[in-house]
Amino acid sequence: MKGKSDYSFWFIGNGDFAALLLPMLAKSFSFKMIITRSPSKANRGLLEEVTPVERVAAEAGFKPVRTPLLASDELIINEFQTNIPDGIFVIDFGEKIIEPFLTGSKFGCMNIHPSLLPKYRGAAPLQRALESGEPKIGATLFQLANEMDAGPIISQKSEEVTLKDNFPNAMIKAAILGNQLTNEWLNRIIDLSDQVPLYPQDQKAATYAPKVSKSESQQSFSIAASLIHNRARAFYPNPGVWAPFRGKRLKLISTYPLEEAPASSKIGEIIGFHNGAPIVKCKEGALILKQVQPEGKRVIDGGDWVNGSRLKTGDIIE
């Protein structure tokens, strides 16, 4: 019977989700190669900005291979054809994987996607799930195919989230789920002599999660408090959400929705306080502004903002 060390794998990734998973997976998988995108220019071209995966890999003592475009990188293609790994984990990479990488190894290319596929395919699955108020987030281990996030499923796991969970919290939870899935898969591979069943996705049930744009940041209290709150936690820390206040942007860092609000109060009106933080009337319900960031200033508690702005019950935020 084969053991874990008898299998060879590659890791390909760029972003924060991949950077969370790399040190977790490296405890069980001995990666023969770690590949990430070449550094981009930052600070007006004065400094190179490496990917989160490269940063984490360097901290763990790995030296990742940089590539501007995997599909045309002859050195990496030659290395693959000379020393074909058993499988490749492609996570948070942002480039379409083509042959010979896609199907050229025993297990092909596998992805850990932070949603319960086929729901929330695309660039921002966790953010869109939180924005929609999903009671659970999930992770799916699946095999890559030509169509985006549409390959056959190996396994899935889910976990409940609360109204206090924001995007960074949810991403950590999803990474832990993804790590559990890959370890279970590896153990099954060993026990079942390389044979693990795959399950096709229900294409009719697919939904899509487009990347969050800066244009979605501006909010108005003329919508439901629950929706503003879900966007605040989903879009944190970037691009974040903000509402106009005295001609400037007031960034809503941490909020909490209330279902009830006086019918007689106006939209945007401060109807009370919770531990010093203002409670603002919305079209549906009300919103506690627990932490805010006035334009050009640091993040402060809602109560400190109220005191500094000399706000009182009945004032309108707009």
Would you summarize the structure shown here?
With 318 residues, this protein is an alpha/beta fold.
SSE topology:
Elements: E1 9-13, H1 16-25, E2 31-37, E3 40-42, E4 47-49, H2 52-59, E5 65-67, H3 74-82, E6 87-91, E7 109-113, H4 125-131, E8 136-143, E9 153-160, H5 167-191, H6 225-234, E10 242-245, E11 248-258, E12 270-274, E13 277-281, E14 286-294, E15 300-301, H7 302-309
Parallel strand pairs: 1-2, 1-6, 2-5, 6-7
Antiparallel strand pairs: 3-4, 7-8, 8-9, 10-11, 11-14, 12-13, 13-14, 14-15
Care to describe what's here?
With 318 residues, this protein is of the alpha/beta class. It folds into two domains: 4-205, Rossmann fold (3-Layer(aba) Sandwich), CATH 3.40.50.170; 214-309, Formyl transferase, C-terminal domain (Methionyl-tRNA Fmet Formyltransferase, Chain A, domain 2). Helix content is 24%, strand content 26%. The chain has a seven-stranded mixed sheet with strand order 5-2-1-6-7-8-9. Strands 10, 11, 12, 13, 14 and 15 form a six-stranded antiparallel sheet that branches. A two-stranded antiparallel ribbon has the order 3-4. Strand 13 (277-281) and strand 14 (286-294) form a beta hairpin. Helix 1 (16-25) packs parallel to helix 2 (52-59), helix 1 runs parallel beside helix 5 (167-191) and helix 4 (125-131) runs antiparallel to helix 6 (225-234). It starts with 8 loop residues before the first strand and ends in a 9-residue tail after the last helix. The mean pLDDT is 94.
